[in-house]
Amino acid sequence: MNMFKSLSIAVIAALSFGMSQAQATELFDFTFSGPSASGSGTLVANPNGDGTFTVISGSGTETVLGASDTLTLLLNPNGISFAKSPNGIFLFNDQLFPTANPLMDQYGLLFATSSGTEVNIWGTDANAYIYANQRTIKESTTFSLNDEGVIPEPASIALLGLGLLAFTAVRRKS
After folding, report:
1. pTM of the shown model
2. Is the distance from CB of 62 to CB of 30 less than 8 angstroms?
3. Residue 155 lies in a domain
4. Is there a domain that residue 17 lies in?
5. Count of domains in the chain?
6. What tens digit of pLDDT does each residue of 35-83 get?
7. Where is the signal peptide (predicted)?
8. Domain that holds residue 113
């Protein structure tokens, strides 16, 4: 009977851990390249429940016309609706579609650079990468996204730990 009890506790803990993982934050690596610009970085995103994701943070580096710069994602204050960039040039919505082509819609992601410019990346069509500074560069890019998997949440790890402790405690009693 004790073996059944400990096995039940372990199964419940594993199921709870798996259920919380389904809604957990995911990490993506991205790269882009075009005739005069290239870059890479990471994105942290929450699932929307329909196979799409809302990006909640991101950073990286880019090289434009031979000059390197850092990228920091600007968050959309409007949820999944699009927002205007601070300089008013771009619309963006921070949505990813990892299983679709293109990987983003016509709004895409907006980054600020350390030199104060804005970079809008929104897919792989013509003009999909736009770099705004004294002159705007619009070019077709190759954009790739690699899902690095789920970022474990502290609650999920704690739940797994409790399940293992319960399993060990019941096992020692028998």
Report:
1. 0.71
2. no
3. no
4. no
5. 1
6. 888 899 999 999 999 989 999 999 999 998 888 999 999 999 887 789 9
7. 1-24
8. 26-150
